[in-house]
Structures are given as structure tokens and as C-alpha cells.
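Lecture notes, part 5. Sequence design as translation. It can be helpful to think of inverse folding as translation between two languages: the language of shapes and the language of residues. The source text, in C-alpha cells, appears below.
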């Protein structure tokens, strides 16, 4: 039995939900996080002392950190094509997953909180501009990669890396500002749209 702890409006929870869709895994999900049960409850902290969602419990194996959960689920539940075992192919998938979780995530954070979430703590116009500039720079890197990769971020086949990167695109398109045209990114988004997991957990209007 697989249990996923976390509300489905969270981008990091949606990574896990999309991965389960790709793997054909059944699960039950409980709503935790802001607006639902508090991750500060002792029973939650016992699973993840960082008080963050998502967390999974797979037959007694408890794990947090969304990208690590994706890797585990693919390795444990027959996802060899999503997460190849050959060291170089696997490293290429890891590279893009880590890029999303670190550089890309950090770049968009201020602008997204300001322009989409309307956070009163993110009202500094200069910091918004810096964030947008940095985010756009990383998206140009993605554009360049997709122009020559063969269709997906880590190569010609869909892999785990397309899940965090694909969900990140939703934020890119949902943020109101003058985006440069990135045709390979747009074509990639259209390609992801053909996957049920993306339609259910990515392009469903939630950013
Ligand atoms: N590095 C973590 C980040 C997790 C994270 O930031 N989760 C947010 C939701 S997207 C959270 O738990 N927020 C607190 C809450 O909702 O209570 C991961 O990738 O799993």
C-alpha cells in the first residue's frame, strides 16, 4: 500500500502524483500542508522533521524529498525506462532533476511569489526584475537543450526529469510578464500535453 501525504495543489506533491500515473501505481493520498492538516503535527514531524510535503509511506518505507521519491518509486516499481540504470543515462536524468530543484527553483521563487501568489512579503520590484531575469536565463538554457535533445529534456525518451521540468513550465506560462518566445520549450509543452499524468497534475490550471 502506497500512501502520499500532501495536498495536490503543491507542485512537489504533483511530481509524485504524475510519477505514479506514469508507473500505473495505485495510492491513497491525504491532504496535508497549508490550508489542510498542519505538517507541524507530531505524527507528521515523526515522518518528516522538515515539516514539508510530500512524504510517502510505501509498505512501511517512509521517504521525503520529492525528487528522491520519484527516483525511489521508479527504481522500486518497474520504472527502468523512466530512470535508466546505465550510469551516464542516469546521470543525465539526475542532472536535469537537480537543476530544476536548485537553480531553476531558486530563480523563479521571488517573481512567482510576487506575481502569481501575490505574497505581501515579495513586493520589491527590483527583486522581482532580478528574479525574472535569472529565470529567463535558465529557460534559455532549457530552450537550447530542447533544440538538440531529441524531444525530452534528457534525450529522445520521456524520463523522470521531464516531470519536475514539465511542472516548472506551468509556472513559467502562468506568470504574467513578457516572456521571450522559446519555440522548443513550447513544442515540448505540447508534447507533454499528450501524457495523461501531465494533463491531470500539470496542465490542470494549478500553478
Ligand atoms: N525540497 C522539498 C520541498 C518541499 C516543499 O517546499 N513543500 C512545500 C509545498 S510545495 C511545503 O511543504 N510547504 C509547507 C506546507 O504546505 O505546510 C521537496 O522537493 O520535497
Amino acid at each position: 500500500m502506497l500512501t502520499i501525504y500532501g495536498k495536490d495543489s503543491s507542485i512537489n506533491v504533483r511530481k509524485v502524483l504524475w510519477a505514479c500515473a506514469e508507473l500505473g501505481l495505485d495510492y491513497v493520498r491525504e491532504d496535508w500542508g497549508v490550508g489542510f492538516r498542519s505538517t507541524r503535527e507530531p505524527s507528521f514531524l515523526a515522518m518528516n522533521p522538515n515539516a514539508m510535503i510530500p512524504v510517502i509511506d510505501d509498505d512501511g518505507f517512509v521517504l521525503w524529498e520529492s525528487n528522491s521519491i520519484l527516483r525511489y518509486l521508479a527504481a522500486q516499481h518497474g520504472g527502468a525506462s523512466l530512470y535508466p540504470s546505465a550510469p551516464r543515462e542516469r546521470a543525465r536524468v539526475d542532472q536535469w532533476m537537480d537543476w530544476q530543484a536548485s537553480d531553476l527553483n531558486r530563480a523563479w521563487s521571488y517573481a512567482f511569489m510576487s506575481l502569481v501568489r501575490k505574497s505581501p512579503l515579495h513586493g520589491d520590484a527590483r527583486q522581482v526584475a532580478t528574479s525574472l531575469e535569472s529565470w529567463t536565463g535558465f529557460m534559455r538554457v532549457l530552450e537550447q537543450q530542447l533544440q538538440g535533445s531529441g524531444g525530452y529534456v534528457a534525450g529522445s525518451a520521456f524520463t523522470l526529469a521531464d516531470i519536475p521540468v514539465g511542472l516548472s513550465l506551468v509556472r513559467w506560462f502562468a506568470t504574467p510578464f513578457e516572456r521571450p518566445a522559446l519555440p522548443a520549450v513550447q513544442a515540448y509543452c505540447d508534447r507533454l500535453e499528450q501524457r495523461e499524468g501531465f494533463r491531470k497534475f500539470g496542465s490542470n490550471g494549478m500553478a
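The translated text above is only one of many valid answers, since several sequences can fold into similar shapes. The pocket of glutathione is lined by residues 10-12, 33-34, 39, 52-54, 65-66 (CB under 6 Å).
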